[in-house]
Every structure is written in structure tokens, then in C-alpha cells.
Amino acid sequence: MKASWVAENKSVETSLVSGAELFIQGLQNENVEVLFGYPGGAVLPIYDALYKSEMKHVLTRHEQGAIHAAQGYARVTGKPGVVLATSGPGATNLVTGIADAMIDSIPLVIFTGQVATTVIGTDAFQEADIVGITMPITKHNYQVQRAEDLPRIMKEAFHIANTGRKGPVLIDIPKDVAVRTAEVKEVSAIYLPGYQPTLKPNILQVKRLNEALLQAKRPVLLTGAGVLAASAEKELLVFAEYHQIPVAQTLLGLGGFPAEHPLCLGMAGMHGTYASNMALYDCDLLIGVGARFDDRLTGNLDHFAKRAVVAHIDIDPAEIGKNVPTEIPIVGCAKETLSALNQTRGDKGDYSDWISQLTQFKSEFPLTYKTDVSELKPQKLMQILHDVTKGEAIVSTDVGQHQMWAAQYYTFLEPNRWITSGGLGTMGFGFPAAIGAKVGKPELPVIAVVGDGGFQMTLQELGVLQDWELPVIVVIVNNKSLGMVRQWQEIFYEKRFSHSLLDIQPDFIKLASAYGIDGKRAETESDVREALTLALASKKPFVLDCVVTADENVYPMIAPGKGLHEMIGVRG
Amino acid sequence: MRRIISATVLNESGVLNRLTGLLTKRQFNIENITVGHTEDPAVSKVTLTVWVEDDRKAEQLVKQLHKQINILKVRDLTNMSLVSRELALIKVLTTPDTRSEIKMLIEPFRATVLDVSLENVTLEVTGDGEKIDALIELLRPYGIKEISRTGVTAIPRGTQKKVLEFHPYSIM
Lengths: 572, 172
Hints:
- The structure holds two protein chains of two kinds.
- By secondary structure, chain A is α/β, with parallel strands linked by helices.
- In chain A, α4 packs across α19 and α12 packs parallel to α15.
- In chain A, α8 (about 150-160) links the parallel β6 and β7.
- Chain A is globular.
- Chain A contains 24 helices and 20 strands.
- Chain B is α+β, with helices and mostly antiparallel strands.
- Chain B is built from four helices and nine strands, in the order βαββαββαββαββ.
- In chain B, the strands form two sheets. In chain B, strands 5, 6, 7, 8 and 9 form a five-stranded antiparallel sheet that branches.
- Chain B is elongated, with a radius of gyration of 19 Å.
- The chains are: A alpha/beta, B alpha+beta.
- The interface of A and B includes residues 140 and 193 of A.
- Chain B: Its EC number is 2.2.1.6.
- Chain B: It comes from Fictibacillus nanhaiensis.
- Chain B: It holds the Pfam family ALS_ss_C.
- Chain B: InterPro entries: Acetalactate_synth_ssu, Acetolactate_synth/TF_NikR_C, Acetolactate_synth_ssu_C, ACT-like_dom_sf, ACT_dom, AHAS_ACT, AHAS_small-like_ACT.
- Chain B: Dimer of large and small chains.
């Protein structure tokens, strides 16, 4: 009797594991392949468990690098990016990336260390109320109070991050919770009564949209990141081709519809194409799919799709009617909704006049710039990038002029090749995001297109390229200025270039070399072609510093407060 | 216009912070807010009064609140037939002459005297906001020392009018 009691007791004892071990198990349960992180005091127990595990961990050189890398990873793989950072400054360094992921709906699960529960609230060393700080910029967040809660919280967090409208979820783990032990238990099914995203569209609204399509003479589709998040590219293509509806795309929606398709009008918005913007201005039926009618897209709302019946397909009901009055609201995931539309399709409308008008706009007013062989034009640079990579590369950018040129001239033929900071407009995003993308999709070439300003915000991540020998190619679009700021100062502030010119800058090639990375400075088109071809073949990291026309501006452009029909610089 | 929104929330720490933070972020100004337990101890009910410009903003507010993971249900009660109550505690200065006068004055309001001292009385009154405002105005000439109001709590009536006057900006 006594022996069996001991044995029983022993088995209970061995099934007790620490919070840190539960954390590792939770990651394994969610099939997490890689963590992006940075250690520190409050996460020492977790890093110790990590040391003993097989889990892959990419050590970035700054927490901001870790979270942007996780964003890049999530963007190309469709899986949540996982981040680990310590308490206090470690956690607050993540804030920009969390806000970026929130506004661009990128699924992330972020783990932060916290001071022990016994000292929370005492202004302890490296204590910051990260749950309070990130409340408005996360889809949801948690602080774990007991080790036994961790498995359930992790399961919920991964579910919340990657379903519905995707987004960042933060889990704050106090140090003592990671140390304390709990029994390993099977986590029961997720129970979240307050979270039940609608995926299937209301069939009555689908019917109404089909009817509206018959009535319409000038329909246009506006497709956004929701198409990519739902992997609805095929359904979109079928829908657009069957009805012959032209497609305008948002910045984040690029790649959701093939750029060279005859129905594709290109990017819409502040620096969008004439055809796209005029289609949105003049249409009589606007079908938004997974796009949120952001101000950079719509311009002045008083002139946006004024004569149109607006149909809006979105997984987030709060987006419908937020900025643009909507007659046909359809809450649902883009994939399910477009398939429902394809299944219930009836007669087709005749839009041939409309399409020929827009096709004429496309050929008459294409994106254009003044060519000058004596200089390297940034627009040409993007076209060369496309040529040399055959449009197959994953391209990531920061925010600003180089971002717009990449969006305009790289010509995205396939989905999930475009990573950019859209909503938040984060400088320093592109390079670490490219690192994450390369980790997620090692088989594809990855190019970080960055400005000389933005690159200097996160260039410490060159250390990661060196460390992992990741063949990411960094293309610096170097105009020795904060180009977009300079452009606005030129146009709207009578050329008072207040603190936007970066004449003093490091020698980026020497800098790369200090990290053991090859680099080259390119001043002509042939320099770029040569260096890029070599870099792609070498399968090694590379920094290409491209000296481009310094005072080049992004056109066409819609000035703030103006409508989509009031574009300037339509012809170069 | 003034709107009464009722939110059923999970009784977890931080929920109220999440809710009010969301209102701040979207620039809604809370006039008053009440929170309390419901018939289910795991669930609390928040009733808040906000000033909203138009129906579109009101719809946006309800939708944004509904997006929160630990908010279970959100209802805009404004155009519903409902019973709503607010409680106020009012401390009024008195003299021996005015004490009985005040007692008579408050009678139609069904206010009760909770505490009496030599210089003042403390009254309790329940009702809708307008009734409380009216009583306060009546008492003001005597000298009000202190007022503490709870804010509105509300519940829809068991029977609702058939015609819904509220036209949602977009129908889900």
C-alpha cells in the first residue's frame, strides 16, 4: 500500500513543470517555428527554458528589430509572428511595432517579461505597465497571474491574433509566474463568448450586391489587405473576370490582383494612378473588399465616390460605414464572401464603355517620370529591381518616397511579396521586416528597399544578417534627405527644408563591411543591374547604396484636403 | 445628442480601463458611467451616457465597443423604451426656520432625509436626470454644500414599441 502511494505521489510530482516550460510547450502546441526576441532580467527563466529546448530564436539587436522582423515573417507566411522581450524598456521598445501591426492587421503574439507579482505596482527595477500602455494598440492583451493559466491564455492569444481581423496580442508574464510550477493539463476548447468573428456573409446582402451589379454601368473593385489576409486572390480573380470589373488596389492590397492583368488599374490614393483614382471618383458602384477607406486613399471624402452605390465587404463590422456611407454592407471574410458571390452569380452587366474609358486612361496617363541617363532615377531603380528579380522577390519598405516608388514601379504580380508599413508609416520598418520575411520564406529572394533616413533607424540589425548569413539585399534609395518630408516642404512650405536634409551620413558600404557584409555604391543604372545580379547569385547578404536624383518628387499626387479627381503631376 | 449605451462585460480586471480607453481614443466624452454586478457574478454591466454628434458616430461607438474581446454585448438604449434611474445625495444648508420648509419642498420629489445636523441636512433622491436637476434648482437658494450623483443606470422595458425610430447608418 505504502509503495503504491509513494509511486502515485511521485507521478504527480513529475508532471509539475515551470511556467517557463509551459511557455515552451505552448509554443510547440501552436507549431511556432521561430521566435524573434531579446533577453533581459525578467525573462531569464524563460530564456533558460529556451536554452534547453529546440526552439529557434533569432536574436535581433534591438527589440524594435525583433517586432518588425516578426511582422515581416507574419506577412509572408500567414502565421502569427512571435516576439519575446523583457520587462520595462524591453517591452516599451516594442510599442511602435505593436501599433504598426494593429493598424495594418498583422497577426503577432508578443510575450513580455514583467517584474514579479510580489513587486508589481511598486515602481520596481525595469517595471512598466505594458498591459496598460498597449491596451489601445493591441487586439487583446493579458497579464498572467498564475502559471496554470498560461496554456489557456496562449491558446486564446494565438486564436485571437490569427482569426477575424488579425492583429497583435500581448501576453505579459511576471518573472515569478515563469518560475512557479503547475500541472500539465490538456487545455480545453477555447471559450471566448465575447469574440465570435463573422466569416460567412449574409446571403441577402450578397444578393443585393449581385442585383446592384446588374444595375451598374461603372462598377469598380477596391481591394485591400483583407484579400491577402484571407488568401482570397483566386476568388477575386474569378469574380472580377466574370463580371469584367476593373480593380483598383490599396497600398497594402498590392499583389492581391495581378498588376499586369488588363482589368488592373493599379494603386489608388494620394500617389495612385490616374485610372484608379478616376475610377473611384466616377464609379456608380464601388465594391470595397478588405479595405478600410483610409484618408490617404480617399482624399477629401466630400469628393469620394459621390455618385456611387457603395458596397463594402469587410471582416470587421466597425470598418463598414466608418468613413464612407455604405448602402450594401457585407460583414464576412473576403474569401467566403467572394466565393458566395461567385456561386450565386447571375446575368452580367455591360460595362464595356466604362472599361474602354479606363483602359484609355491607363494608356494615356500612365505612371511616368522624366528620364535622365546622367542620373539614377529612383523610379528606374524600382523597375530594374523588378527586371532583375523577374518580379519574384519579396520587397519590404519603410515609409516615404522610396515606398511610393516601390509601390508604383515594382509591379507586384503575386500575392504576399509586398511588405510595407502602411497605416502607421513607420521609418525603420523595412529592413528588419525583410529579415523576418527571409526567415519565413528562405526560398524567395528578399529585398529591403529603404531610404537613407529610415535605414539609419534600424541598421543595427545588420548584425542579424551577419549572424545568420541571411541573403537579404538592402537597397538604400539614397537621396541624402528625408525625401517625403523634403517634398512636402518644397510644395507646401515654400522650400523651407527644415531639418530634412541629411548631408552628413555614414559610408554605408564601410558600415556593411564592419559587419562583414559585402556592399557596393551604385550611381548608374548599369551599376545597379550588375551589383544586383551578383548579389542575387552570391546568396549572401548585400548592401547596395544607390545614389539617386536627390530632388526627385513622387507624382502624381493629391494634395491634402483635395479630392481624387484633383491630382497634380499626372504627366511627368 | 445624448446617448445611453449599455455594455455587458466580463467581470475581469482592466475591462473598465479598456472600455474608457477606447472612448478616449475615439474622442468620445463620457458624461457619466455606472458599473455593477449582474445576476451572473462573472458578468458586470456598464451603463454610460455619452454625448455623440450623430447616428454615424453612435454606430461607430457601439461597433468599436463590441470588438473588445471581454465585452459580451453592447446596446444603444437611447431610442428604446426604458426605465432609467439616477441617485443623488444633496447636502443643503439649513437654519431652524428653513428645515421644515425644505422637508415640505422635497416631498413631491419623494426625496428622503438621510442625515440631519445643526447646519445642514443630507437628502437622497432617485429618478431621471431631469427630476434631480429640478430638485437641485429648487434647493439652490438655501445653499447647497455638496452634491454627489451616481450617473444613470438603465434597463429596457419588458414591452417595446413596435416601430423602431432609430435608423442604423448601415445594417449588419
